[in-house]
Design brief:
The chain has 193 residues and is an alpha/beta fold. Strands 1-8-7-4-2-3 form a six-stranded mixed beta sheet, with helices on one face. The chain has a two-stranded antiparallel ribbon with strand order 5-6. A hairpin with a 2-residue loop joins β7 and β8.
């Protein structure tokens, strides 16, 4: 009878344990996501916007990549029905803030060496654990923030990052093109123009 009660307890707690493990894994996946953060001021009449001006970044680091980003932003916004204008005549100003980030980390293998004596009521274990790095330990990211301002008020803000497979200029340029397109994809199109 006691054995049957323990089995019933084990059967009812097993689904709970599985559910907890599933939730924990989902939480880890959500935290590790590189999903862009995009916000827009909902009360803005995006259909009334006809012209834009792309401002140079405040943090100049590579004129060639800056020109490429400005050109990509211009192409995406023109594809949404907006027209390029001078800074004074534009309905909105678009600013961007690129940056690099290097994160250290990576994989490691832990190897445990030792001896142990275990009994019914307790145990003793003597030994040590070694952690051996495996593979590359540095990951480089290209971060980008895009801000759209109308009459001194932010109406659209998007930030995201792209993991770089290598740090050559062509790879960085391709990653930035994809990142700009991703960050501006939700920007409302104005097909009436």
């Amino acid at each position: 009878m006691i054995i049957m009660m323990n089995n019933k307890k084990a059967r009812t707690s097993f689904p709970h344990c599985v559910m907890l493990v599933f939730l924990f894994c989902a939480l880890l996946v959500g935290c590790a996501s590189n999903k862009p953060q995009i916000k827009m001021l909902e009360e803005t009449n995006f259909a009334a916007l006809k012209t834009f001006y792309v401002q140079p970044p405040l943090n100049s680091f590579n004129p060639t990549l800056e020109q490429h980003m400005a050109s990509t932003i211009t192409t995406v916004l023109q594809g949404k029905g907006l027209t390029v204008a001078s800074e004074d005549e534009a309905d909105i100003r678009v600013g961007f803030f690129p940056s690099n980030r290097v994160e250290e980390g990576g994989s490691s293998v832990s190897i445990g060496l030792g001896t142990g004596v275990f009994g019914r009521s307790g145990g003793i274990s003597l030994g040590s654990i070694f952690s051996v790095p495996v593979g590359e330990q540095v990951t480089e990211y290209q971060n980008l923030q895009i801000e759209v301002v109308q009459d001194g008020e932010f109406i659209y803000s998007a930030a995201g990052r792209a993991e770089l497979e290598s740090s050559d200029s062509i790879t960085v340029q391709q990653a930035l093109t994809e990142l700009v397109e991703t960050l501006l994809q939700p920007f409302p199109a104005n097909r009436a123009n």
